[in-house]
Amino acid sequence: MDGGKPVKLPSLHVRNFRMLEDFTLEKLGRVNLLVGGNNSGKSTVLEAVRVYATAAELDVLLDICKRREENIKYSSAFQSLWTRQQTPKQEQVMRIGEATPDTDNVLIIEIAHIANTEKIEPDGSRSVSTTVIHTSSSPRPFSITDTIIPVWHVRKNNLHQRFISFQYHQPSQINGEYRLSPPCEYRPATEFMSGDALSKIWKNIALTPKEKTVLQVLKIIDSSIEDYRFIRHEEYGESAIVRLKEQQSTIPLRSMGDGVAHALQIALQIHAAQGGFLLIDEFENGLHYSIQEKVWEMVFALAEDLDIQVFATTHSRDCISSFAAVANRNKVTEGMLIRMGRSVLKRDNNKVIGTAYNEEELAAVLEMSRDVR
Question: What is the pLDDT of residues 264-303, one digit of tens each?
């Protein structure tokens, strides 16, 4: 491995997030594929990286809970996101970020309270001072004039600070010192983005070389595709159409099957993720095993060119084999396979662990007889 650009997360440590009570990956690559059985923590790692990348954006937290059909309306602090789905104890802190102990490259979430104290100034005017009280520290006594609001105190990289309020059991976001997070694109396992959302990405790359790159990806699925566009359909909204070889008329892209639709979504999202993260749950969905290697080649090349760190999951041995083949050939972009499972050590109390394998070790992994599904 000659080594390309540095990645945003060279390692990962997660504490007190869902089933990841104390989870560490000492090394990550630019393209990372997580494998393991059901309930092994693969999708939870994607969720953790998504929370980290977006600095715990409220809309992202709500979407994560919605996808698992978790009711947060009456949850005072998104308790389903904490380990054992319990409201955290005073001393507990959620940590997602680089595994290095002294790094600033980390997201910290603490349970706290905001106390708004109203004061009467000498001139008779009223003013309000705000104090943040962490439950892990010694709280100051509240006065009867204080308005107390339970919050998450979110800090990341010493650049982001925001509060998520749970007043009246209705989450709301209060931004403090805050800078924009890097892009983070997420592709769920079983659903497509809307045509409007995909069209918005396409319009940002139309008439640029990136648009031609997306076309090349579509040709991997079906070489007869000559061109593609988004149009406004009176019934369906924005919709992708394609023109095939030796045909004058166009047809809806979705009429060509899920494989083409999945390829279009991945190709567009990887461009939207430039400079950030791309998360793909169940990479193989909609992609026939015979073309997965070519799609991985595209992902590796664009991840390096666009400075993206990719995290994907799979249940498919074919997907692992195609990933390994591309990772072994690519001498610039590092690919890591991460096997998720449970520790057999008694002292670990059945905790979730991950074992990472680089390109040199992947061949041995593929020879293992254990089923990855």
Answer: 999 999 999 999 999 999 999 988 899 999 999 999 999 9
Could you tell me if 133 and 46 are in contact, meaning their C-beta atoms sit under 8 angstroms apart? no
* Chain centroid, CA 278 distance in Å: 7
The secondary element (H helix, E strand) that includes residue 172 is strand 172-175
Task: Look up the CATH number of domain 185-366.
Answer: 3.40.50.300
Q: Is 62 exposed, middle or buried (0-12, 13-18, 19+ CB in 10 A)?
A: middle
Give the model's pLDDT for residue 104. 81
* Higher per-residue pLDDT: 26 or 74: 26
CA–CA gap between residue 30 and residue 308 (Å, rounded): 7
Bridge partners (DSSP) of residue 339 are 35, 355
**Using an 8 Å Cβ cutoff, are 164 and 56 in contact?**
yes
Q: What is the DSSP letter of 82?
A: B
Q: How far apart are CA 129 and CA 171, in angstroms?
A: 22
Q: Report the distance separating Cα 369 and Cα 367, nearest Å.
A: 6
Query: What are the residue ranges of CATH 3.40.50.300 in the chain?
Result: 185-366
Could you tell me which of 201, 206, 258, 196 has the C-alpha nearest to residue 227?
Answer: 206
Candidates 109, 93, 94, 102; CA nearest to 160 is 109
